[in-house]
Amino acid sequence: MKQAFLMAVCVAFCAAGLAQTLATANMLGAWKLDPARSSYSPGLPPKSLVNTITAVDSGLRVISDGIDAEGKTTHFEWSAKFDGKDYPVKGDPTRDAISIKKLGDYVLDLTNKKDGKVVNVVHAVYAKDGKSRTETRTGTDGQGRHIKNVTYWVRQ
User: Tens digits of per-residue pLDDT, 3-61?
Assistant: First the structure.
């Protein structure tokens, strides 16, 4: 009886892990920004940007490396669950917290905050073929200007 119970618990955990992996598999991997297919208002796009996305327990981990419009290197990272709670962002001067909500197998909403205040919201849509994603970012920049950036990403 005890052995059957342990087996059932093991199967339940494995099934939950498999469901998590399948649900986020289309989001995982290295993603490169395509500046030519992206629009930034106001401002210029970065010269290059690559986000590496991996799965974590009930969420995602993102490590981003790039070169901004002025030629300076950039790096930030975060890990967050799909629970809408705030998690720390390291290395990004424009935000210090992020929360994510999964709206479906191909759609995420991310809320970025600085000092507890929402600075922008990102609506990310992943292509069903797994080759691209589009993000629409709305909010304010460091100078208080309204922004609307639409970025196009290609899986590497």
Answer: 654 444 444 444 444 444 444 799 999 999 999 999 999 989 999 999 999 999 999 99
Please say whether the beta carbons of 81 and 59 come within 8 A: yes
Q: Are the CB atoms for 87 and 97 separated by under 8 Å?
A: yes
The residue assigned the tokens 């920049």 is: 141
Q: Which helix (H) or strand (E) holds 99?
A: strand 97-104
Torsions phi, psi for 4 (to 5 deg): -65, -40
Q: How far apart are CA 66 and CA 51, in angstroms?
A: 9
- Tell me the pLDDT tens digit for each residue of 112-131: 999 999 999 999 999 999 99
Give the CATH number, domain containing residue 53. Answer: 2.40.128.20
Enclosing domain of residue 126: 2-155
**Number of independent structural domains in the chain:** 1
Structural element, H or E, at residue 78: strand 73-81
Q: What's the confidence (pLDDT) of residue 8?
A: 45
